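Record passed on here:
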Amino acid sequence: MQISDRVQSLDCPQGSAVALGFFDGVHIGHQSVIKAAVDCARAEGLAAGVFTFRLPLSHQLKGGRLETEADKHRVMADLGVQVYLEPPFEEVCGQSPEEFVDQILVGVFRAKAVFCGDNFTFGKKAAGNVETLRTLCGQRGIRVVQVEMAQWQGKSVSSTRIRAALEAGDITAANTMLGRPYRIDFPVRRGQGLGHTLGFPTINQVFPEGFIQPRFGIYITRVQIGGTWYAGATGLGTRPTVNSSGQNPTCETFIPGFTGDLYGAQPVLEFYEYLAPSRKFDTLEELTACVQDAAAKAAAYFAPGGAGSAVEAR
C-alpha cells in the first residue's frame, strides 16, 4: 500500500475509486465504504484509494483513540487499499469544498468514483455534505456512491458505540462492531517484576495518553509474538493488591508457555472476553491463584473445541 502523509500526486495514472472518511477504528460501517471502493476499483481497472486525515497526538479525540496509525494502515492494506492519503488535519481543514474536490480528488487521486457514508462532511467548517459532493463531482465527471451505514442490534454502528462497549467491558459487542478483535500494539515496558517473582511473568504495556482504555478487569486475550499466537490472561488496571495509590494503570499479560525478553518490542494483543472486574486480594497467594485461573480459561478458550478455536491467525 502506497501511503502519503502530504497532499501530493499518488501513483495511480489509471485513475482511482476512493473511499472518503476519518475511519476512526475502521469498524464494519467503514469497511463497507472501503470495500465498495475496492470492489469498484477491481471491476473497472482502477486503483483502490482512501482519503483520510491525521490528527496530532496532542489532539484529544472525544472518547479516546481506538487504534494506532500503524494498526489502521494494517487494516486498510488487508482490505485491499492500494493508495492511501492521510495529510495532517491542519493541511486540509481550511479548504473549501471546491478546493477539496479539485486538489484532492482530481489532483491527487484522479478519481473516477468516490464512496462515502451518509453522514460524510468535508471542506472548511464542514461546509460540504454528500449532496455538495455529488454536485461538485458530477460537474467533473466523478461518480459518487453513498453507502448505507451498517447496523447492529437495530442501531447504526459507530466509533462512539464501540468506545461505550469497551468502557463497559463488553468485548463481544466491540469486536462485533469492529469486525475483528479489539487490539493494541503498544511497546512492552519494564515493570516491577512482581509477576516473575510469583511465578507468572507478564508483559507490561501502557496505554498512551489519548487512547481509550477498556474497563479495568481481567480478560482472555491472545498475543502475537514472532508470527506465533499465544493464549494470554490480561489484567488491566491499577493493580490494587500491590499498588495502594490507585494510579498509573497498566495492561499486564501472562503468556503461559512463552519465555523470552520482549522489552521494547510491540507485540499485538487481542481482547476476546471479559472475565471479572479488578479487585484487591488479601494475599499474594490469592492473586496468583486468580492469574492462574484466568490463564487456564484462556487456554481452554483457544483449545480445539473452545469458543475461540475457530479464530484464524491474522
User: Anything to note?
Assistant: The two ends are 17 Å apart (CA to CA). The domain at 183-302 is CATH 2.40.30.30 (Elongation Factor Tu (Ef-tu); domain 3).
